[in-house]
Design goal:
alpha+beta, Beta-clip-like, four-stranded mixed sheet, 20% helix, binds zinc ion
């Protein structure tokens, strides 16, 4: 039994330089749930001690917590990053379509939607006009991404952003 859910409308296929990726095999409407990430919830110390191949298929779900997939990754764990994503995070372990997705399109999300720790920084070659070239753990803090991904950020990051904005508007009033 797999730990994660992947919609029956997509499958894992080779994705060029990115290795494997998830591609739509049926048309998918905006808003549909695409994946649900499962596994083992680890604190930061446990997570940091894990081998890199496990860390790169994990998803950060809270300030100090990570959902780590099984040793042999499930199909859902193969979702790649894009700086021009067609999918986003709902709650903290669900992936949903941000836009209508056509057959053959690769399903990607922006790792800035969930990552705030430096375990998965990399040079990006997603080829989108908006590509940031280097994807880092600080990207969630970029105002343009916070605006663009409102409603698609992991709930712990959205809470963090909302708290920061509340603090800023309070400071402006004082
Ligand atoms: Zn990129």
């Amino acid at each position: 039994m797999s730990h994660s859910f992947l919609t029956a409308k997509a499958e894992v296929r080779p994705a060029g330089h990115k290795g494997m990726g998830i591609f739509a095999t049926s048309a998918i409407a905006a808003g549909e749930t695409l994946a649900g990430f499962g596994g083992t919830v680890c604190d930061k110390a446990t997570f940091s001690a894990m081998p890199e191949f496990r860390q790169i298929h994990a998803i950060q779900i809270d300030d100090e917590l990570y959902m780590v997939g099984p040793e042999v990754p499930d199909p859902a764990d193969m979702a790649n990053h894009s700086c021009e994503p067609n999918a986003g995070i709902v709650g903290n372990i669900l992936l949903a379509a941000m836009v209508d997705i056509a057959v053959g399109d690769e399903i990607c999300f922006d790792y800035a939607m969930c990552d705030a720790a430096d375990y998965d920084e990399f040079i990006c070659a997603c080829a989108a006009p908006t590509c940031r070239k280097v994807v880092t753990s600080a990207d969630w803090g970029r105002p343009e991404l916070q605006t663009r991904y409102r409603g698609w950020m992991s709930s712990y990051l959205q809470r963090r952003i909302d708290n920061m904005n509340t603090a800023t508007s309070r400071a402006e009033v004082e």
